[in-house]
Amino acid sequence: MNYYVFKNGKQEGPYEERTLRDQLENGVYLETDLAFRDGMSAWRPLAEVLNSSTLPPEPPPIPASPKAVLQVPALPRTSVTLPDPAQLVVVTDIRMPFGSMVIFILKWTLAAIPAMLILGTIVAMAWGFLFALAAGLSSHMR
């Protein structure tokens, strides 16, 4: 069965169910992204599409709210042109086990130590230069 996802104004897919579930777990898609599968007559939230085991003969009426479900007919597969990778911005949730997150934070903390030492040395040298300059100026004024 083919699945399609409507994200950022573009239809993406077709995907197999397992592939789409993996992409949802990895944060590529959100549960609220609109999705469509063969046999459906309307786009629905991805979580709803993946969790429904059987399709009703007709979808329920569209809610009259700003978050109404978009009615878009299934389109044939089209190629998606992505923007230049330098301009592409992707914000996702980071899903990792607690222990892995602690190790990740510790590694970044340890990696920051040399940078702090370098910055501390530069600041100390700048203050030393300013004090030497002030001492030199005050000795010339006497």
Parts with pLDDT < 50 across at least 5 consecutive residues: 53-58
Number of DSSP helices? 3
Write down the overall mean pLDDT: 78
Computed CA radius of gyration, to the nearest angstrom: 28 Å
Task: Tell me, briefly, the overall form.
Answer: elongated
* Distance from first to last alpha carbon: 91 Å
Secondary structure category: alpha+beta
H/E series: EEHEEHH
Strand percent estimate: 5-15%
Task: Tell me the helix content.
Answer: 40-55%
Order of strands, widest sheet: 2-1-3-4
Q: Tally of extended strands?
A: 4
Please describe the biggest sheet, giving its number of strands, its sense, and whether it closes into a barrel: 4 strands, antiparallel
What do these coordinates show?
With 142 residues, the protein is of the alpha+beta class. The chain contains three helices and four strands, in the order ββαββαα. The protein has helices at residues 17-25, 46-51, 98-141; strands at residues 3-7, 10-15, 34-37, 44-45. The protein has a four-stranded antiparallel β-sheet. The protein is elongated, with a radius of gyration of 28 Å. 10% of the residues are buried. Mean pLDDT is 78; it is low at 53-58.
